[in-house]
Amino acid sequence: MPTFKVKLSSNSKSHIALLAAGLIFGANYWIAKGLMPLWFTPSQILFLRVGAATGLFWIIGLLYPKDKIAKKELLRIAICSLLGVVINQFMFFEGLRLSHPVEASILHTTSPIFVMIFAASLIGESITWQKLSGILLGTIGALTIVIKANGVSFSSDTFRGNLFILANIISYSLYIVLVKPVMMKHNPIVVIKWTFLFGFLFCAPFTLSSVTEIQWNLLPGHIWLSILYVIIGSTFLAYLLTIFALKYLSAMVVGFYIYLQPLLAATVGLIFYAERPTLLKGFAACLIFVGVYLVNRSSNDVNKGVGKVPEANP
Question: What is the value of pTM for the model shown?
Answer without folding.
Answer: 0.73
